[in-house]
Amino acid sequence: MTTQQLIEQIKIKKSFLAVGLDVDLDKIPKHLLELEDPIFEFNKAIIDATHDLCVAYKPNTAFYEAYGIKGWMSLQKTINYINETYPDIFTIADAKRGDIGNTSSMYAKAFFEDLNFDSVTVAPYMGKDSVEPFLAFENKHTIMLALTSNEGAFDFQTLTVDGKELYKQVLETSKTWKNCENLMYVVGATKAEYFTEIRKIVPDSFLLVPGVGAQGGSLSEVCKYGMNANVGLLINSSRGIIYASNGTDFAEKARAEALKMQQEMEGIISLKF
Ligand SMILES: O=c1ccn([C@@H]2O[C@H](COP(=O)(O)O)[C@@H](O)[C@H]2O)c(=O)[nH]1
């Protein structure tokens, strides 16, 4: 999917919500556990119930890898289902990859070619040659960690290196990389006060923003400081939506939570544009 197509979807749906598909077998409704592929059945129900309210789905691959080959097959069925049934939806493999160049190329093939995700998250720690193999794929997007939502973000990311905070160095340096137009960045919703500075460095880039809902970040604060002329934000909520209920009404309740977020987003968009 191109960035322009993503922007169009945001305008059509009046939403910039990314629903996180972080499936934990201990948290899903018990009746699903009797089915052959409970993870896929859970995802399918959530996707069918929320697809008109969101512009993206973000499975975190950890929640699939944890179940071995069966989990990976559930991930594959989930991405195929989204691509076949709702092809206008942007897909994010939250895998946080990155390695020496030839290894990164294989990671990129796995997520962009084999699984056919629109985007994958990567870590910047290994630098340019670990990220550029992902950027080489046309109409695919590489979402690099910049300033994460967790407390540990302050261990390294905000340290000053050569007179500048590390997360700012990461953003600035990444703009010099080949095919950097294919970059987006992860910035945590719990760090709303940093968005103004981040927008000075990457005014036009899309930011994937996890950390609302269960982690306590504020949607309105993020929008106040982080929105650009194309919205430029994908706000993720995982547990706050998919685990709204663990009963037979789980999909209905997930829809209700997604609708609350979409309506808040619609309100913000209508005020701003
Ligand atoms: O800085 C980061 C980067 C990634 N995540 C991931 O996003 C979701 C958040 O889930 P919630 O249940 O809405 O808290 C999850 O997959 C994280 O691994 C993040 O939270 N922060």
UniProtKB/TrEMBL annotation:
GO terms for molecular function: orotidine-5'-phosphate decarboxylase activity. It comes from the Bacteria. InterPro entries: Aldolase_TIM, OMPdecase_type-2, OMPdeCOase_dom, RibuloseP-bd_barrel. Keywords: Decarboxylase, Lyase, Pyrimidine biosynthesis. The keyword Ribonucleoprotein does not apply. Residues 16-254 form the Orotidine 5'-phosphate decarboxylase domain. Its EC number is 4.1.1.23. One of its GO terms (biological process) is 'de novo' pyrimidine nucleobase biosynthetic process. It holds the Pfam family OMPdecase. It catalyses: orotidine 5'-phosphate + H(+) = UMP + CO2. Pathway: Pyrimidine metabolism; UMP biosynthesis via de novo pathway; UMP from orotate: step 2/2. Belongs to the OMP decarboxylase family. Type 2 subfamily. This is Orotidine-5'-phosphate decarboxylase. It comes from Flavobacterium gillisiae.
